[in-house]
Amino acid sequence: MATYVLSIDQGTTSTRAMIFDHSGSVISVDQREHQQIFPRAGWVEHDAVEIWDNVQQVVGQALAKANLTKDDIAAVGITNQRETTVVWDRATGRPIYNAIVWQDTRTQPIVDRIAQGDTHRFADTVGLPLATYFAGTKIAWILENVEGTRERAARGELAFGTIDSWVLWNLTGGTEGGVHATDVTNASRTLFMDLKACEWDDTILAEFGVPRSMLPQIRSSSEVFGTVASGPLAGVPVAGILGDQQAATFGQAAFAKGESKNTYGTGNFLIVNTGEEIVRSQNGLLTTVAYRLGTNPTHYALEGSIAVTGSLIQWLRDNLGLINKASDIEALATTVDDNGGVYFVPAFSGLFAPHWRPDARGAILGLTRFSNKGHIARAALESVAYQTREVLDAVNADAGVDLTELKVDGGMVSNNQLMQFQADILNVPVIRPVVAETTALGAAYAAGLAVGFWSGLDDLRNNWQEGQRWEPTMAPQERERLLKNWSKAVSKTLNWVDGDVV
Fold first, then answer.
1. Contact 435, 412 (CB under 8 A)
2. Fewest C-beta in 10 Å: which of 52, 67, 220, 358?
3. Which tens digits make up the pLDDT trace of 393-417?
């Protein structure tokens, strides 16, 4: 009897397979990092073939570690880095170019051209501003810059997908009948999906010069997409897909209007469920799809997206050699009593919510001879909390009612110093669940619901358990001083890119 659900969590820096039981407890996990490719300043790429190879390896290893077979697995769920774009040849199954990652900023000229002076030109339809962040500009770049691509796309030879579509297509057979589909949450991150209809918008596709034939079919987040064609999971249904931040929201059991979460991963993403209502932000947030279960109504959300948080710690490790492993950052930061006046604004891809300033670039400010690597480490961690405060202020302004607590998840929430500082700078309690890696759990929930492994949302709510809570302890005047200096630091990063600086 199948008593578990397997989740494939394909993230920005690594790929994991996690196996969950009915209580939502982790039974097994395997994880592999993949290469981060930086061809030039502002460009970020992944090898999509390497990612697919890693998917196969982590699935096999997760099953082996738990001594399980396909007969033990009721369904497979997929969650993914959302806007990262792959275009591949339908006949050979080979990508025609590296995957262009959501952090990549090379498409700013395309954004400027299509925006015609108004980055919110399509926002009423798609809920998003025109920005390099989203998949649509990345497809346009490939069509315009990879030789012969536009002609091949017009002939129907090429397929586009965010990483969920790439993994699904390969899982279900690839060139031998692979399913070319995506779910509403990932489709809502392309700039091409009409939020109300949950269908591709032909007028916008024409503006971008993207043939509709390249695009996957849009389906719900919880239904049987197909079955695994081969390998250790052959015959198991693939029954759930959610973009990573929506999956984390689902894994936090934030199913109802007003419920929220903040994920601390490569970037930070705060999502507030707005129910069946499409809410337009007046404060720099994105309007997006939260989930759709089968034929039930679509649920929407407001999202505050921060480009660089966890990846800043990776940068300190890989580019500067300041630490040997990411977990060392907390110990280094605790070697100093405070930030020593140092502020680190990690605008490596410009600033996302709530600023949306592609002209910004990263800066470390307030340096003196007193400053040391402990201050830089502390400033890096504190930058995560400051950016989250900016997004939470925007959420409160849009919602009209202040959030009274923040549920958190993701890799960085194991950092107790960061979580305490986050509670202090927000002045609300911060709550971590027992299962902090809720992204994989959310995809498992979506898949399990589709095959009856879980009976409904109440079944999932009953699984959520509080793990740890941090209460704010900082004096109000100290909080205001730190936030004032952070705002000053952010102002110094603006207007850096002006045509002659990349």
1. no
2. 67
3. 998 888 777 888 889 988 888 899 9
